[in-house]
Amino acid sequence: MERFRQSEIIKQLTAKQLVRQVYYTQLALLTISFFLGIFLFDRFSSFADLWKFDFKLVLLGVLNGVAVVALDAVMMKILPDRFYDDGGINEKIFSSLSFGGIFLLSLVIAFCEEFLFRGLIQTHTNWWIAGIIFAAVHIRYWGHWYLIVNILLLSFWISGIYELSGHSIAAVMSMHLTIDFLLGLIIRKKAKNQQEEGISNEN
């Protein structure tokens, strides 16, 4: 029932409105991060240490991101479409964006979410708490057992990379960016193919 209501709401929103909502959500997370950061870090040097750039750690994040996408692509081939049915949100968003638009959206999401969940929450608690909170805020997946398990496992994977990298924001940001960007391209391509097949069948 919940997914049905969500699906009906999605149908009433344009792709542009959905994309705008995603950006608003990320802005809200960034605002929360700003105020949390003021209270959680007593020294700027401690905060700055999280942002140190290391190419090897970025590569670690990218490779793990590719691994996640490859695994997800295999599961998409094996499992019925209903296992990945999020009410049409991802398809509507990514099919409306250009290559650059998908990259920009993925970059903003990776920055805002990893800054909050890994950079702030995990740094000051542990990776289990950060992982659970990360999964919990993805409300639109709650009505689908497979998607919530999927996002929970992914969250723990990213949290594990954060620990393995010695608390490197660059590592988890690059991983998150790689996942969202590549999956966005896959969803966009799949939607375009379905659209072309529909036009071909009509002719």
UniProtKB/TrEMBL annotation:
InterPro entries found in the cross-reference section: Rce1/LyrA-like_dom
Molecular-function annotations in GO: endopeptidase activity
Species assigned in the record: Falsibacillus pallidus
Domain CAAX prenyl protease 2/Lysostaphin resistance protein A-like: 99-182
Protein name according to UniProt: CAAX prenyl protease 2/Lysostaphin resistance protein A-like domain-containing protein
Pfam family, any one: Rce1-like
Biological processes, Gene Ontology terms: CAAX-box protein maturation
Keywords: Membrane, Transmembrane, Transmembrane helix
TM helices/strands, residue ranges: 21-41, 53-73, 93-111, 117-137, 144-162, 168-187
